Amino acid sequence: MFVLLPPSETKRSGGVFMPLALDSLAFPALTERRRVLAGALSALAADQDATVRALKLGRTQLAEIDRNAALMSSPTTPVIDRYTGVLYDALDAQTLTPAARAFAGRHLLVHSALLGPVGGLDLVPAYRLSHDSRLPGLGLKKHWAADVSAVLEAAPGLLLDLRSEGYVSLGPAAAHPDRWFLRVVTESSDGHIRALNHFNKKAKGVLTRALLHTGQDFDTVDGLLDWAPTAGLTLRPGVAGELQLVVDGHL
């Protein structure tokens, strides 16, 4: 089983490990794609105005340019410790047990706009690049989609896709009985179903943390659905290829 998360635009600075080693990351078939994009992003940082336009940066975000300039030389930290924001605050990686972190290393993936899908404990630097960034002469969808879809298709077992629509566009998971997209919804007393925006991130973090702590490598979606109530979660099939995580709209 793999759980596939979106990244976050916000990231912790610093790190304690050696600089980025592209050939050490999960899915080595993506190494050359990663190398091309990392080179383009770090080179772009030499032009502040162009970087601001490409990354849609505000006046208070110019430090992100320095991060990108040092992309290949700055220290790294595990993926689950690098990202911050609502989803990752709920995941709260720093308080995971050693067993849960080890499980994350084997079963958790995060889809980076810069590096494609990476493992939960892969070592990455701080950087700034989003799914909708517009690098001169390099479209992210064209750069990533075919190769990312290929590695996701080849990944063995169940894949629970928690990505946002923007990151799905950088590598859709092909329709397959073991590929499930998660949609966070709330249900009113009259049975009306509504998708959530802000609260969906927290719900995904809570679900991911519960999966890491349970440490079960589910073979089938039925096993996942049977487990959910034991973790206090309401998880059910939605339309074809989708699961619904039902939460309180005021989570």
Biggest beta sheet attributes: 8 strands, mixed
Question: Which stretches are poorly predicted, pLDDT < 50 over at least 5 residues?
Answer: none
- H/E element order: EHHHEHHHEEEHEHEEHHEE
Principal-axes geometry comes out as: globular
**Number of continuous helical runs:** 10
- Let me know the average pLDDT: 95
Distance between the termini: 27 Å
In total, the number of strands is: 10
SS class: alpha/beta
Radius of gyration in whole Å, from Cα? 18 Å
Strand fraction: 15-25%
Q: Indicate how many domains the architecture comprises.
A: 1
Secondary structure: helix percent = 25-40%
Write the layout of secondary structure elements.
Blueprint: E1 2-5, H1 31-44, H2 48-55, H3 63-69, E2 77-78, H4 79-82, H5 86-91, H6 98-107, E3 108-112, E4 116-119, E5 123-124, H7 140-154, E6 159-161, H8 165-168, E7 179-187, E8 193-195, H9 198-214, H10 221-227, E9 234-237, E10 242-246
Helix pairs in contact: 6-9
Please characterize this protein's 3D structure.
Pfam families: H2O2_YaaD. This is Peroxide stress protein YaaA. It comes from Cryobacterium lactosi. One of its GO terms (biological process) is response to hydroperoxide. There is one protein chain. With 251 residues, this protein is of the alpha/beta class. It has one domain. It has ten helices and ten strands. The protein has helices spanning 31-44, 48-55, 63-69, 79-82, 86-91, 98-107, 140-154, 165-168, 198-214, 221-227; strands at residues 2-5, 77-78, 108-112, 116-119, 123-124, 159-161, 179-187, 193-195, 234-237, 242-246. The strands form two sheets. Strands 1, 3, 4, 6, 7, 8, 9 and 10 form an eight-stranded mixed sheet that branches. It has a two-stranded antiparallel ribbon with strand order 2-5. Helix 6 packs across helix 9 (198-214). It is globular and about 55 Å long. The relative contact order is 0.17. The mean pLDDT is 95.
